[in-house]
Every structure is written in C-alpha cells, then in structure tokens.
Amino acid sequence: MTKKIAVLPGDGIGPEIVAEAVKVLECLRAEGLDIEMSEAPVGGAGYEASGKPLPDDTLALAKESDAILLGAVGGYQWESLDISVRPEKGLLGLRAELELFSNLRPAILYKQLADASTLKPEVVSGLDIMIVRELTGGIYFGQPRGIRTLDNGEKQGFNTLVYSESEIERIGHSAFKIAMKRGKKLCSVDKANVLECTELWREVMERVAKDYPEVELLHMYVDNAAMQLVRAPKQFDVMVTTNMFGDILSDCAAMLTGSIGMLPSASLDANGKGMYEPIHGSAPDIAGKNVANPLATILSVAMMLRYSLNESAMADRIEKAVEVVLDKGLRTADIDSDGMQKIGTSEMGDAVVAALAD
Ligand code: NAD
After folding, report:
1. What is the C-alpha to C-alpha distance for residues 105 and 251, in angstroms, rounded to an integer?
2. CA of residue 154 to ligand 1 center, whole Å
3. Please, what is the angle between helix 14-30 and helix 345-357, to 10°?
4. What residue's CA is closest to ligand 1, atom 1?
5. 290: CA distance to ligand 1 center in Å?
6. DSSP assignment, residue 81?
7. Strand, helix or coil for residue 104
8. For the domain bounded by 1-101+269-358, which CATH number is listed?
C-alpha cells in the first residue's frame, strides 16, 4: 500500500535541506519505493499562511500520513510574537497531537570527520550511540507547577516529576525494540538513589526486560552517565531515559560528534508512525545561501525508512551513500577541512543521489 509522507520544510534553511532529502526520496521512488509526498507549511511559514504555527490543514495532513519529514522552524522575524503563536509551538503541537513519546537521537561520528570532535579521536572514532528520550511526560509536563508566594512572602518555584507505569512501559518497549535492531545492549539512566519516581522507572524497566531476554539491560545514575559519555562513550549502544535527563544527555552525546549538520532524529508514537528531522535549528544566519549541510535531513530520511516504512535495506543504502560522499572528500562548509572539496547544499544532495544510484 502507498505510504503517505507529509513534507514540512518550515523556516530558514528548512526548505533548502528538505529539498535535498526529497531528492533522495524521489530517487528511491523511481526505483519502486511506494510513497506519496504532500507539502505543507509549519512554524513561521505556518503563521504567515494562516496565523497559526501549526495550521489546521498541516495538522490534518500530519495525522493522515505514515511519516513526517520536517526541516526546522524559527527565525528572527517571529521572535517578538506572542509565545502562543511562535514557530516552536508548531513543533510542540505536532509532538503532542500525534503522541510522539519516543525521541530517538543517534550520535554517530563518521570516521571521515573524527577531527570535528573536541574529544581525542581514539575516544570518539567509530562512535555510534542511540539515545531514546521520553518526550511527552516527566517534569516538563508534571502538575502541579508554577511559582507561588509562601507565608513569609518569599517566592518559591516548583515542578513535579511524575511518571506512570504505563508511560515507563511504553518508552521501555520502544527502547528494547531498538536495542534488538542494534547491538542488544540497553543502558537505562535514572536517579533511583534520590528520586522515587525513577526508582519506579528502574523497577518497570526490569519488568519490561523480561520480554527481551536477548537484550542486556544495565542501569546507570544520570551523573555517572554524563561522566561516562565524555570519558568512554563507545561503551554505550542504546540509552533510554526520562524527558529531562534525555534532553541534556542527548545534546551532550550530539556534541561528541562535533558536527550539528550531520545528526538526524526521530520522534515515534506507539505504532511506529514518526516525525523525522535534523537535530539542528533553522540557522537563519546561513539561510538562502546554499551553504547548509543537508546530510542530517537526508539521514533523517534513512531513519524514516527504517522505523516507519519498514525499509531497512534502503535505510542502509542511504547511510552508505553518505559515507561514500564523505570518502570522496566532499564537504559542506560546516564540516570542511584542509584538502577536502567544499560544495554547496544542492551539490551535496546531488552527490548522495549519485552515490545511491552507483
Ligand atoms: P541552529 O541549530 O539553527 O544554529 C546553530 C549554529 O549551527 C548556527 O551557526 C548555524 O548556522 C549552524 N548550523 C545549524 N544547522 C546547520 C546545517 N545544517 N549546516 C550548517 N550549519 C548549520 O540553532 P540556533 O541558532 O540556536 O537557532 C536558530 C533558530 O532555530 C531559532 O529560531 C531557534 O528557535 C530554532 N530552532 C529550531 C529547532 C527545530 O526546528 N527543531 C531546533 C533548535 C532551534
């Protein structure tokens, strides 16, 4: 059956990088991949089109699609808008409306780019970690929350860390399934020595583990996990953690690779439907100049094929094509170095398509 893909370019460099990812999808469609793509505005573009960062038609399209390809949202011109209609609300709205609770952020360091990391090449070369972050619960959403005034007149800020068993179970299953497709090693990160909520997290992870006897489950406190990520990151295969811990650890892991323009992400619901996007923003400083790196978006397409469209072989081919292009010494400005050939956004997309076809 034809799979529907919603293409939401967004703002800034979004349209440029998404155009290159669409080239890759068109190439695979020409080979027989049964997909249908429809484009719609989101973020600042959504606001300009309809007064809402997540226009009703865009949400309807996202809901009826099997997967969503998103560029990035945001830009200087919308920064003074009321917070309720800022571009970022479009993204948050999609995550909430589609119940995309499982956020997958790989941190991969291509051997060709080992020098881009601030860590020693031997520590990070060949790095390949997948961080699974719970995205719709935890302290970012827990009630009660706010700032109150105490009897003595002093103000007090408060938030609530809350996870139900079912929320932990579903992110647990998501992470174990991913571990099954990779190295079968899962590290669950918590603070069970201090926070009762994550004591329950640990208990539920142990329970879920019984369904995946082939996966080795390990628990680690978040402070140690942060330390281990910069000390010896290659010990990790898949990590699963709460919304806030995942927010912090995934940025830390991403920066181990040193190249923001190379990292894709996926946010999945319980049925494998997902939204796929680069981890970087809309980079308004370089928008419209044909210098942005489209590889993170192209690699997001690979994740889409693997996790939502069940086309792992095609996903492997895209990832291999990216390696071939890097082996040829082709680089966009953000990953350029001595002796390499600097090319633009559209040339990079063309090079990946050519490598795919080879
Ligand atoms: P950013 O990720 O857009 O840019 C940070 C730096 O990295 C910039 O110097 C930029 O030029 C560079 N960069 C980013 N992507 C690149 C690419 N593909 N190729 C080459 N260089 C790249 O972060 P920022 O500057 O903090 O935010 C800019 C806008 O993006 C803001 O409006 C912010 O709210 C928004 N934003 C959106 C998302 C999203 O849509 N998921 C995420 C983060 C930030």
Report:
1. 9
2. 38
3. 20
4. 281
5. 15
6. S
7. strand
8. 3.40.718.10
Retrieve residue 222's tokens. Answer: 């978040």
Residue with tokens 């050519």, as numbered in its chain: 354
CA atoms of 70 and 6, how far apart (whole Å) = 8
Taking only the tens place, the pLDDT of each residue in 270-315 is: 998 999 999 999 999 999 999 999 999 999 999 999 999 999 999 9
Atom 5 in ligand 1: which residue has the minimum CA distance? 283
Where in the chain are the domains?
1-101+269-358, 102-263
pTM, whole model, 2 decimals?
Answer: 0.91
Q: Does the Cβ of 319 fall within 6 Å of ligand 1? A: no
Coil vs helix vs strand at 312: helix
CATH code given to domain 102-263: 3.40.718.10
Other Cβ atoms less than 10 A from the Cβ of 96: the count is 14
Q: Do the domains spanning 1-101+269-358 and 102-263 agree at the CATH topology level?
A: yes
**pLDDT (tens digit, 9 = 90+) per residue, 240-270?**
999 999 999 998 998 888 788 999 999 999 9
Q: Is the CB of 112 under 6 A from ligand 1?
A: no
- Determine whether the shortest distance from the Cβ of 282 to ligand 1 is under 6 A: yes
Q: Are 182 and 145 in contact (CB under 8 A)?
A: no
CA distance linking residue 316 with residue 332, whole number of Å: 22
Q: Determine the Cα angle at 127 with ends 122 and 132, to 5°.
A: 150
> Looking at ligand 1, which residue's alpha carbon is closest to its atom 20?
292
Among 3, 17, 57, 33, CA closest to 283: 17
Q: What residues have CB less than 8 Å from 259, skipping those under 6 apart?
A: 113, 116, 293, 334, 335
Q: Which two tokens stand for residue 218?
A: 């390990």
